[in-house]
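Section 4.2 – Deliverable D4.2 (structural model, holo form)

The reporting period included a commitment to supply a predicted holo structure for the target in complex with 2'-deoxyguanosine-5'-monophosphate. Inputs used:
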Amino acid sequence: MSADCIFFRIISGEVPGDFVYTDEEMIAFRDINPVASTHILLVPREHIASVQDLRPGQENLMGRIIFRARELAEQEGIASRGYRLVVNCGPEGGQVVPHLHVHLIGGRRLNDKMG
Ligand code: DGP
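Output (structure tokens):
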């Protein structure tokens, strides 16, 4: 855990977030720089720096985060139209915030490019 990580500060309540879901193991809030009308970040409360830092035993946590993204897509009214889940990992993967997160993006036709 690091006090200079913005997601740590949002999880701890020091920095406000536009929350759409919280429970004991994860939070979900709107991205400050949305690329579509729905752009939500799902973040485990436990500090895990990236996908590469996942440990055995955390598979179900990731499954629950994906499942929650599916529920939020329904809540946002984009489930039937489709959406994208993105997990950036490390510098070349485009990860900027060093705390594992899943982007839920939708509400418009997304570009086909994958990088
Ligand atoms: P990534 O490149 O996958 O590490 O994406 C990090 C995302 O976090 C990026 O889309 C912008 C978002 N973000 C950064 N700082 C804040 C913040 O203070 N609040 C919110 N809501 N989102 C933030």
